[in-house]
Amino acid sequence: MDFTEAYKQTGPCCFSPNSRFLAIAVDYRLVIRDVASLKVVQLYSCVDKINYVEWALDSEYILCGLYKRPMVQVWSLTQPEWTCKIDEGPAGISNARWSPDSRHILTTSDFQLRLTVWSLVNTACVHVQWPKQISKVVSFTQDGKFAAVCTRRECKDHIILLSCQTWEIMGSFAVDTMDLAGIEWSPDDSAIVIWDSPLEYKVLIYSPDGRCLFKYSAYESGLGVKSIAWSPCGQFLAVGSFDQMLRVLNRLTWKIFAEFMHVPAIRGPSRAVIFKEVDEALQLDMSGLQLSNELSNTVQGSCPENIAESHSRVKYKVMDFPTSLPSQKPPLDKPNPKQGIGLLSWSHDSQYLFTRNDSMPAVLWIWDICHLELVAVLVQKEPIRAAVWDPSGPRVVLCTGTRHVYMWGLRGACSVTVPLSNFLVSDLRWSPDGSCLHLRDRDSFCCAALPSMELGPSDDSSDGDG
Question: Where do transmembrane segments lie in this chain (predicted)?
Fold first, then answer.
């Protein structure tokens, strides 16, 4: 695993969809670097601190959200002198994103006033009234032809379908939710999944014409859905809940075919492998050294008595059954309890998915959907900050805010130490083609290149330290 040197970064970053460029926010400046060499390709100056960065799908344009201004600035990679500013004035901007055609930008104003579609071609704009104030208010089909917008009027949630060619309203229908929390098209564009706020467990599947295909509620009188994710193949829908369970629906029958529990102790028999992060002391063999009496006394007086205790490396240890997992109980007198499936992601071949139960923040669970079983459990010393699948194969990379990067693959797990002084990995992300891994510290970043093959031989995969 090869690392680059550290570069400055104070804001968000984003790989271009073609994986050739990396956009980095440094205060009010946007730095575009070449992924292969990390040389600066373009440098743009915004009017305020950058809060959000997103590339257009054609990798030609890039937008910067300056939400405190509030304003959106757009830059062209091929025409550096070209620029565009979007200012909503007193209405404010809480969210901005590209449309699939890379020539329109959608912004959401504050206070649920309106969603605006801005054209970069003819400066025209289209307004949609009363959008929901949620993190993902719009979802596009995979072919980029339609957009589903979450709105709320007269105390009722509605879905509006827009054509991405003309931006005309193609249809609208009310949905059976108390307070809609999210929306997502299925990968084959044949269905739309929406889910209610945590106060009510409700998952609804609608057809594009507004027919309710399926309604699911696992239980009542408790906090409900916390995370949802379609499998890339579109056959499965994973639902993570506050009751610390993962449920998987079959797209063909809309039935629950798998339920996975996140238990505080794992007991055999089980095919799962439990990897626990431990510190291994480095034993220094000094028996072959011969020092003079004077030099020996100097060394003993200036060095710690136990040199092995001051030098150690991080490794994974394979645990036996039964194994208890570190967990914590959320306080009953505080809102938004840290429990339930807060992190959920599918592998790109749809065969595996990982989860993190927020009441066990230092534990990552990896499940095999084909065999409906637990494959591996990674037990870290610190809470998991981020975890991502390798786009090129079934491999997970994660970080915990330490100097180490942790990996799991089909042949085992290992840890790698970042060879940069005082570099603590707090976030990470892959380039779309899987050729580059971006690692972020608080005010800097570096990139790493991993071999495309799986982790090394199984006899040393559980104790590697890079």
Answer: none
With left for phi above 0 and alpha for psi between -120 and 50, is residue 403 left, alpha or beta?
A: alpha
* pTM of the model as a whole: 0.89
Buried b / exposed e across 191-212, counting CB within 10 Å, b at 16+? bbbbbbbbebbbbbbbebeeee
Q: Which domain holds residue 39?
A: 1-92
- Kindly state whether residue 84 falls inside one of the protein's structural domains: yes
Strand order in the sheet with 192-196: 180-185, 192-196, 203-206, 212-216
In a domain, 225, yes or no: no
Amino acid identity of residue 277, one-letter, is E
Contact present, 427 and 440 (Cβ < 8 Å):
yes
Residue 129 lies in a domain: no
Q: What is the pLDDT of residues 58-80, one digit of tens each?
A: 999 999 999 988 999 999 999 98
- Please check whether residue 76 lies inside any domain of the structure: yes
Look up the CATH number of the domain holding residue 407.
2.40.128
pLDDT digits (tens, 9 = 90+) for 415-458: 999 999 999 999 999 999 999 999 999 999 999 998 774 444 33
- Domain final residue, candidates 92, 107, 140: 92
Domain count, the chain: 2
